Amino acid sequence: MNLDKVKIAFQYALPKHGVSRLVGKLAAAKAGKLTTSLIKLFIKQYKIDMSEAQHEDPSHYQSFNEFFTRPLKAGIRPLCEDDNIIAHPVDGAISQLGDINEGQLLQAKGHHYSVQTLLGGNQADSEPFLGGKFATIYLAPKDYHRIHMPVDGTLKRMIYVPGDLFSVNPLTAQNVPNLFARNERVVAIFDTDIGPLAMVLVGATIVASIETVWAGTVTPPAGKDVFSWDYPSEGNRAVKLKKGEEMGRFKLGSTVILAWGANQADFLDDQVPEATTRMGTAFAKLRD
After folding, report:
1. Could you read off the pLDDT of 80-101 as tens digits, one per residue?
2. Catalytic residue positions?
3. What pLDDT, on a 0 to 100 scale, did the predictor assign at position 245?
4. Which pLDDT does position 219 carry in this prediction?
5. Pairwise pLDDT comparison (254 vs 71), residue with the higher score
6. Do residues 148 and 281 make contact, with C-beta atoms less than 8 angstroms apart?
């Protein structure tokens, strides 16, 4: 058995939820010098550019979670404000992108999964995205872990989908069927000027929590059932976010999947698998 197969087999055997929640508690702990030492080790290991952070000094952060979700300096990620451009929502790297053919998204060579399953199993939620486009962006440990709006949007629905917590790195994507549709995730569906837009925040091994700006921590705790919340388009409960505004964050790294409907927009030519993404830069252009 080669090393890659051993790594995959280990993931199947690992009590992923238990390990992830334990790591989450440790990451939330305020342990003074021990926390600072851990952060410094992490910075060195993953070659994190702290010159971009609003607070460059590792000792500023009271917990590892506070460091991991650190804000960037103002203006460090200029926003492409062209109304005809969809902006990148995160720092990361493109795993896959392309068409949603017959309701299927490409995970990796030889692996596809259902947009309906990804969005929680409700056919009415998935229908607007049939024939549309999708993009999967992987956030590595070194990346900035806040998620921003790619266009102006009004929140229509949020869905919590229970699931496993496999790693979402490229090796796992190539070897675990239906990875993104089997992991725990939070789905946000927005009404936008280009039509429906789905943003799926996918959990992973040792991802301590997924948060949104309107609901706070959505998970943990983990559930066993799909839950959904509908939001009004107007009034006190309406959630309206501008392009470039923060919509959520991960505590420890994971993946974001975007989807929009048919004939809305096309990816720019330089947006290809493995390309580096930077929040706010041009990603796709609206069709005329």
Report:
1. 999 999 999 999 999 999 999 9
2. 91, 148, 254
3. 97
4. 77
5. 71
6. no
